[in-house]
Amino acid sequence: MKRPSFHDLTPEQQAQFGNGVGPCWLPDPLRRMITETASWFFKDASWRHHDFGYAVGGDQWDRARCDWKFFMAMLRDALSHPKWRIIRIPLALMIALMFFLAVRIGGQLGSFEYRADYASLEEILEDYSP
Fold first, then answer.
1. Domain span including residue 113
2. What's the Rg (C-alpha) of the chain?
3. In the chain, how many domains are there?
4. Which UniProt keywords are given for this protein, alphabetically ordered (predicted)?
């Protein structure tokens, strides 16, 4: 089966996909606060793509690829700040590294869908629709 892509979602589905920044067990107000704070440094698509990759699932290498792509997207975002570069870029790089370590360590505790085959787009939408 072909691996579903985040770009297979409609723009509306993309905008609503995922739970923000943080694990599903984190209280919603705290996760919202972290997501809003991270929005100062990173684009929403970074973690929405990451959440989608975790929903598609696969093996440990698929999870590592999702985490690495998330890290690379955060680094691109971190280096693209035109205003207050001297402050924002180092801070964004530090936060990106912390988030990367968090998903590498915490993502194995139940967020990633380990499975033999990738989930279909229909399965993902059924399981993860708001």
1. 39-128
2. 15
3. 1
4. Membrane, Transmembrane, Transmembrane helix
